[in-house]
């Protein structure tokens, strides 16, 4: 091997003559057939291993000094090593030729990588398909060894980006070369591009073959809240959550798994938009066939509570057949705010079929219909005149609802609270939570209503001594209890009031009762009229000491305007 540096001292024109003389003197007659090694930086040269010196390998490349390479450059990435032996011929990369001392820097590893790179470039171009093992996950993607490490971006791993690209480490995959950057010795590959190319070919063929009603094999590629995408071998179809089973499916993961192989029914094909609707449930007959024969209206069945909503509970009668028990159909008497007060998911319950809507695939069920209706016995149990005790459950503007047993309420109307007192609001007489004893006045079996009376627990004083104790012209004392725009109510005795009309408040004309009196005042008045039929007493403050009653006393002095009159017992508003 001839060192070309020995020739640099000669002129170019004398090179051939000098070379001939040198080789004759050295006895190298075959100099013309030997390759002359050129020592340029970053070139691969051939050398001979002289010795192994500790962790260093001394190599002679025919230069004026030997090179030294660390022994660990012969160690592979997997940890294996095949170290050289003295006398071995190796190819190394001449990295630098330094200074006048002639020292050089060599690399076995870089020479190996450069040869691998040149081998790849000699065999492949952009667009070629290559195979390799995924070796490492790096920022932005994966490294794939195809003879050299190439970069596979995360976005190019698959058609849909995997949740963790690290799952591909150790797998052998096929990719397409996207870009080769020779100066930087960089190759970018794409698995997605290759898959898309293959799928495009398969899709064209598949779309020509697909028909509604076919059953095809596929593989689950992605799962979403609304369903799953299934690869049919060239195109994905959507398996919607509502088509996963005849039964209620709330989570697609309960039915299918990623990469699962399954057979699906072709439910619909949109060839223009290349969309395919798939189904699992249509591979079997619908359980709704002959539903009316299996579950006739008014028949009772056992079921399982599978879902609870604010408005009711869904009960499964069989797989794929669920009915709704509305909250109003859960109990005859119990006031239910939420279905969870009565049932829990998984409970076994008895239900009665109330209605079937075959078109909407809806069944209305009832739970209370499987128990006796207590209102069927109310009329027998509480005939008019019966005394009952209960607790005031609720107050309204027109009365109080009293619970006489669980779920059975009676209405105590304001007009039935007192014989003598004008009750404007039930809170004047009773309080929520108070226990009362009342008399049953009437029972409306059909409308599920009971009318109660409190005043009926005592004799009617208007049929007793009130007309005898209060006579026209009589002077009496009382306390102002209420002011209205038409006059003043005066309490003559406990529970008994009379009306002092505004025209009878003063000798002078006034615009408002507040000009003369206020609530709580003790005043003296004269009885103008006593009407036992209407249960009214008319009063006056004019000429109180004059026992005579004028003949022209108007009727409205005792009655007041319509809104001031106490409603009759037979004119109750509808309870709420």
Rg, Cα atoms, Å: 53 Å
Tell me the total number of β-strands. Answer: 30
The quaternary state of the protein chains shown equals: single chain
Secondary structural class: mainly beta
Strand content is 35-45%
Main sheet record: 5 strands, antiparallel
Low-confidence stretches: 1-19, 26-34, 558-576
Q: Output mean pLDDT.
A: 83
> What is the terminal-to-terminal distance?
115 Å
The number of helices is 7
The neighbouring-strand order within the major sheet is 3-2-1-4-5
Q: Which percent bin holds the helix content? A: 10-25%
Shape: elongated
Layout of secondary structure:
Layout (H helix, E strand, L loop, with lengths): L14 H12 L16 E11 L2 E5 L6 E4 L18 E9 L6 E4 H16 L5 E10 L2 E5 L3 E5 L18 E10 L4 E5 H19 L5 E10 L2 E5 L4 E5 L20 E10 L4 E5 L11 H4 L5 E10 L2 E7 L2 E6 L21 E10 L4 E5 L11 H4 L5 E9 L3 E7 L2 E6 L21 E10 L4 E5 L12 H4 L5 E10 L2 E7 L2 E6 L20 E10 L4 E5 L15 H4 L17
Parallel strand pairs: 13-15, 18-20, 23-25, 28-30
Antiparallel strand pairs: 1-2, 1-4, 2-3, 4-5, 6-7, 6-9, 7-8, 9-10, 11-12, 11-14, 12-13, 14-15, 16-17, 16-19, 17-18, 19-20, 21-22, 21-24, 22-23, 24-25, 26-27, 26-29, 27-28, 29-30
């Amino acid at each position: 091997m001839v060192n070309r540096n020995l020739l640099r001292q000669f002129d170019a024109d004398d090179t051939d003559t000098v070379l001939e003389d040198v080789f004759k003197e050295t006895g190298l007659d075959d100099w013309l057939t030997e390759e002359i090694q050129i020592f340029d930086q970053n070139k691969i040269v051939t050398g001979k291993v002289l010795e192994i010196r500790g962790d260093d390998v001394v190599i002679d490349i025919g230069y004026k000094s030997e090179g030294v390479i660390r022994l660990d450059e012969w160690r592979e990435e997997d940890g294996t090593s095949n170290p050289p032996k003295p006398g071995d011929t190796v190819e190394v990369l001449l990295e630098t030729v330094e200074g006048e001392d002639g020292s050089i820097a060599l690399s076995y590893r870089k020479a190996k990588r450069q040869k691998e790179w040149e081998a790849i470039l000699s065999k492949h171009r952009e667009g070629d398909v290559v195979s390799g093992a995924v070796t490492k996950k790096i920022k932005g993607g994966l490294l794939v060894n195809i003879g050299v490490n190439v970069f596979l971006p995360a976005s190019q791993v698959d058609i849909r980006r995997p949740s963790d690209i690290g799952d591909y480490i150790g797998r052998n995959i096929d990719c397409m070369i996207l870009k080769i950057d020779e100066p930087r010795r960089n190759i970018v590959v794409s698995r997605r591009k290759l898959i898309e190319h293959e799928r495009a070919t398969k899709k064209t063929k598949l779309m020509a073959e697909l028909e509604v009603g076919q059953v095809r094999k596929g593989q689950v590629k992605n799962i979403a809240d609304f369903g799953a995408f299934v690869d049919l071998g060239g195109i994905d179809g959507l398996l919607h959550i509502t088509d996963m089973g005849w039964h209620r499916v709330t989570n697609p993961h309960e039915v299918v798994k990623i990469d699962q192989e399954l057979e699906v029914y072709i439910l619909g094909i949109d060839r223009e938009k290349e969309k395919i609707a798939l189904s699992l449930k249509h591979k079997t007959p619908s359980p709704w066939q002959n539903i009316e024969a299996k579950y006739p209206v008014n028949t009772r069945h056992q079921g399982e509570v599978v879902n609870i909503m604010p408005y009711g509970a869904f009960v499964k009668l069989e797989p794929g057949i669920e009915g709704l028990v509305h909250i109003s159909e859960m109990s005859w008497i119990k006031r239910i705010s939420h279905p969870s007060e009565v049932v829990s998911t998984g409970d076994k319950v008895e239900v009665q079929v109330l209605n079937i809507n075959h078109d909407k695939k809806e069944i209305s069920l009832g739970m209370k219909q499987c128990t006796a209706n207590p209102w069927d016995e109310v009329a027998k149990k509480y005939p008019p005149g019966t005394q009952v005790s209960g607790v005031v459950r609720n107050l309204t503007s027109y009365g109080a609802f009293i619970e006489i047993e669980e779920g059975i309420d009676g209405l105590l109307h304001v007009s039935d609270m007192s014989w003598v007192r004008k009750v404007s609001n039930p809170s004047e007489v009773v309080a929520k939570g108070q226990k009362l004893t009342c008399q049953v006045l009437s029972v409306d079996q059909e409308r599920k209503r009971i009318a109660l009376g409190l005043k009926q627990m005592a004799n009617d004083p208007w049929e007793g001594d009130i007309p005898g104790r209060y006579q026209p012209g009589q002077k009496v004392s009382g306390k102002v209890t209420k002011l209205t725009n038409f006059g003043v109510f005066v309490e003559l005795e406990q529970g008994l009031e009379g009306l002092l009309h505004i025209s009878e408040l003063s000798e002078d004309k006034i615009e408002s009762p507040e000009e003369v009196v206020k609530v709580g005042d003790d005043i003296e008045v004269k009885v103008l009229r006593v009407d036992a039929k209407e249960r009214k007493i008319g009063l006056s403050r004019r000429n109180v000491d004059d026992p005579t009653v004028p003949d022209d006393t108007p009727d409205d002095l005792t009655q007041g305007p319509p809104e001031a009159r106490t409603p009759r017992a037979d004119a109750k508003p509808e309870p709420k």
